[in-house]
Amino acid sequence: MLKKAYFLLFIFFIFSGFPQENYSWHREESENFYIYYRNVPLDYIEKVKKLAEAYYWKLENKLGLLHLQFHTKIYIYDNKEDYLKFTHRPAWSSGCAYLEGKTIKSFFNSKDFLNRVLPHELGHIMFNEYLAGRRVPLFLQEGIAQFCEKSSSRRYFKYTIKQALGKKMFIPLRELVKIEGSYLAKNPKKVSIFYAESVGIIDYLLTRHGKFDFRSFLRKIKEGSDLEKAIKWAFGYDGIDELNRRWIEYLSK
Fold first, then answer.
1. Could you say which of 77, 97, 131 is where a domain stops?
2. How many domains does the chain have?
3. 122 and 232 part of one domain
4. Which of 16, 150, 154, 228 has the fewest C-beta atoms lying within 10 Å of its C-beta?
């Protein structure tokens, strides 16, 4: 179920437009967010504000992203019915994001929004802004977005990767970096492994090399370097294959 949720989350993050609507809003502000609501209790709005700022600074501090000068907009509808009506999402949706408008939408007491959807979609928005629209491999987008989520989610992904290694289902890094959404749509059994490995390699690089080297890696990608050259320059590996080997050694300990 989790792998389906993550894949569908990706689909709606990539292909969503920005719908127009007639809805009256109040607005709360924080350092990096505008939060819009109508009749939602203020204590819930304060919780959204507090967590959003915490996730923002986690991205900046742990991933080494430089401070970005913009406000992300968060819309909290009164209930699920209004959310579905105005966003046209499927019934299972608990939140969605629009990169172009730097906007996240959900509804009051949405399941998984505060702990999973909010940090995940904020990760997409911030990373996209950092890259200034430059196209990067899907594993890097999703790995960074997932890294923003609760640490308990990452523990689950580490377990999934070790299971994949044991069952000979592990996706080598050279293959992982080429995977696109169309491939996952045709190979649903690969979805959970893809997402687990995407956040797993980000976790490894940050644990093994630290924020400074990871920031250097992202900067080279932003400047237009290909993945192989950025890995060599920032981390000192011969390339993707050596990184893959060292990562497997780390996972096997």
1. 131
2. 2
3. no
4. 150
Domain limits for position 207 = 138-251
Give yes or no: residues 230 and 193 share one domain: yes
Contacts 24+ apart (CB under 8 A), 151-158: 153/116, 154/199, 154/203, 156/2, 156/196, 157/195, 157/196, 157/199, 157/200, 158/196, 158/200, 158/203, 158/251
* Mean pLDDT (the chain, rounded): 87
**Token pair of 108, please?**
């009051």
Helix axis angle for 118-131 and 138-147, nearest 10°, is: 130
pLDDT per position as a tens digit, 119-174:
999 999 989 888 887 889 999 999 998 888 876 566 788 889 999 999 999 999 99
Q: Are residues 41 and 115 in the same domain?
A: yes
**pLDDT per position as a tens digit, 189-229:** 899 999 999 999 999 999 999 989 999 999 999 999 999 99
User: What CATH number should be reported for the domain holding residue 122?
Assistant: 3.40.30.160
